[in-house]
Specification:
- The structure is a single chain.
- The protein has a domain at about 30-240 and about 265-390: Hydantoin permease.
- It has 27 helices and no strands.
- The protein has helices at about 1-10, 40-50, 55-65, 70-100, 100-110, 115-150, 150-155, 165-185, 190-215, 225, 235-250, 250-255, 260, 270-300, 310-320, 320-360, 365-380, 380-385, 390-395, 400-415, 445-455, 455-465, 470-480, 505-515, 535-545, 555-560, 570.
- The radius of gyration is 25 Å and the shape is globular.
- It is a multi-pass membrane protein.
- This is Thiamine transporter.
Length: about 575
């Protein structure tokens, strides 16, 4: 076993000379300037990826099902994007300034051992969403192959009903998984051009689908004027719930923004791209989605086509002509590229970084990505779409847990530490370390986290299981838990009386209060020199610290329980 572990152990950091150990490896170390190439335009591309995938296209259906009109849906989208932009920029500020990702940032907030809990939650979510997006990507491959072969389009199903999928879709899923593997071997900082190409291709195709559908319908269709009538919520609460559910739906992406802002050339380069991507691309896609779905009702009658793949397959079923086949092929190919970009960049890389932070001695980001892809089979994502699966609904409700953690992280970095941290202390298990706290856990953060998410649990359970009945105040607390909401004892049906002391704001407020009462030793301090070669000349001058002089032995590390111990071999 010892020999096997020795073979699996990662090599030491060739750049800094530091040894890969249980707290450190090159993928979770502060990034050097040469690995930080992302500029304004790259962050525009990164933000646009999540707006151009199939789930983003179909999101409007969920909002309209709450009883909102099209105009209200667009209004909800704009308000939600304001919150998303503020939270994403705020949570990513640490990464762009100190060049470390979510896994290391968790050590600051939760402690060296406490961080494992936050990282584990992110890993679970990343694997589940990777599996879900991979299944959708497989359906894109299926549609593309169906445009090549009429026989494939009408392939006989050889799987039993208990499989909850058909042979054709399973083949598409396998091929998409295989297609994803080579892209996982690319470092995140080098995916800028492929992402930009995928975004451009997908945008053109989405516009083309909308134009074709509206042209066939001879107009915009009925949905654009009246919306839907499925909701049992009052209009005020439907609007309110739509905002919090939209923001909460992307809560896991907000939480780990520093995983990507750490690649920024300069602090602030992530801001314009994030804002423009959210408000331009993020507004365009719902408009196209609603117009297409509305026009599809005029063409086919019945329920609107919210999934673009369903519409593409319908083209082939209606008329397997060369023109339809070509259109279906290019549309499917575009969605394959967008699903690859969204899934690998947003889920695969995230899981890889998180696993590297959980087991840094043996797992780097590439190994972590591959592990995520393997685990995605265990999740069986076809059940999410072909059965009444409660599992995916549970995962979607995880914003109950992520909201207070996001608030705690923001308060800890901006208020308690005043944007100053000690990088060197983030890679040591010494009991004297700045982030060891009490037995390796920041109890202030843990207590705050538990207190804030607990009141929302009954509402979450009732939302998942209609047989569970709770009072309306509890449900309204759950509905507004991410940003707004209030004490569950309030029972007024009007959202105007609900005070903003929810998961996120509750977490920030309570954590700040605890830290002022029980002060954190060393909060607001930073290193006196650049130990990792992560700062450029401007940052070194601004901080007034000693510049990095390259790999060297640090005798003081031995006095601090071997902080990033440098081996003789690495120094040589």
């Amino acid at each position: 076993m010892a020999k096997l572990l020795g073979m699996l152990a990662l090599k030491d950091d060739a750049y800094t000379g530091f040894e890969s150990n249980i707290w450190y490896n090159p993928d979770i170390a502060p990034l050097p300037p040469k690995r930080r190439p992302w500029s304004h335009i790259d962050y525009f591309g990164f933000t646009s990826v999540s707006c151009l995938c199939i789930t983003a296209w179909t999101a409007s259906a969920a909002l309209l099902s709450l009883g909102l009109t099209v105009g209200m849906t667009m209004g909800v989208g704009l308000v939600s994007k304001v919150f998303i932009a503020l939270l994403a920029i705020g949570n990513g500020w640490l990464g762009a300034e100190w060049h470390v990702g979510f896994t290391v940032a968790q050590r600051i907030t939760l402690g060296m051992y406490g961080s494992f809990l936050g990282i584990l939650i992110r890993i679970i979510l990343s694997v589940v969403w990777y599996a879900s997006q991979a299944w959708l990507g497989g359906l894109c491959v299926t549609a593309m192959l169906s445009s090549w072969s009429f026989g494939f389009l009408n392939m006989r199903n050889t799987l039993p009903p208990s499989a909850h999928m058909v042979t054709r879709d399973f083949i598409g899923f396998v091929l998409f998984q295989m297609l994803s593997l080579p892209f996982m071997l690319i470092r995140p900082e080098k995916v800028r051009i492929p992402v930009a190409l995928a975004n451009f291709f997908t945008t053109c195709v989405m516009i083309a689908i909308t134009i074709r559908t509206c042209k066939e319908a001879g107009g915009l269709g009925p949905l654009i004027h009246k919306g839907t009538d499925y909701s049992t919520l009052s209009p005020a609460w439907a609007w309110f719930y739509a905002i919090t559910s939209t923001v909460g739906g992307i809560s896991s992406g907000i939480l780990n923004q520093s995983d990507y802002t750490r690649f920024a050339k300069k602090q602030g380069h992530q801001v314009p791209g994030t804002i423009i991507g959210l408000f331009v691309v993020g507004t365009l896609v719902p408009i196209l989605s609603i117009l297409t779905a509305s026009a599809s009702v005029e063409i086919y009658g019945g329920e609107p086509f919210w999934n673009p793949l369903t519409l593409v397959i319908q083209w082939l079923l209606d008329d397997y002509s060369p023109a339809n086949r070509a259109g279906a092929f290019f549309c499917s190919l575009a969605f394959v590229t967008s699903q690859l970009a969204e899934n690998i960049l947003g889920n695969g890389f995230a899981a890889g970084m998180d696993l590297a932070g959980l087991f840094p001695k043996y797992i780097n980001m590439r190994r972590g990505c591959l592990i995520c892809a393997i685990l995605s089979w265990v999740v069986q994502p076809w059940l999410f779409y072909n059965t009444a699966s409660v599992f995916v609904a549970v995962m979607a409700s995880f914003s109950v847990f992520l909201a207070p953690l996001t608030g705690i992280m923001l308060a800890d970095y901006f208020i308690i530490r005043k944007q100053r941290i000690q990088l060197r202390q983030l890679y040591t298990g010494s009991k004297e370390g700045a982030y060891f706290y009490t037995a390796g856990v920041n109890w202030r953060a843990m207590v705050t986290w538990i207190v804030c998410f607990t009141p929302a649990i009954p509402g979450m359970v009732a939302n998942l299981n209609p047989a569970v009945v709770v009072n309306e105040g509890i449900m309204n607390y759950y509905r507004g838990n991410y940003i707004f909401g209030s004490s569950p004892t309030v029972s007024s049906p009007s959202p105007s009386v609900y005070l903003p002391n929810t998961g996120l704001l509750e977490g920030a407020t309570m954590y700040t209060a605890l830290c002022y009462i029980f002060t954190i030793k060393g909060a607001g301090l930073e290193d006196d020199q650049d130990y990792y070669g992560t700062f450029d000349e401007e940052q070194i001058e601004r901080r007034g610290i000693t510049a990095w002089n390259g790999p060297k032995t640090n005798s003081e590390d031995e006095d601090e329980n071997q902080v990033n111990r440098v081996t003789p071999a690495a120094v040589a």
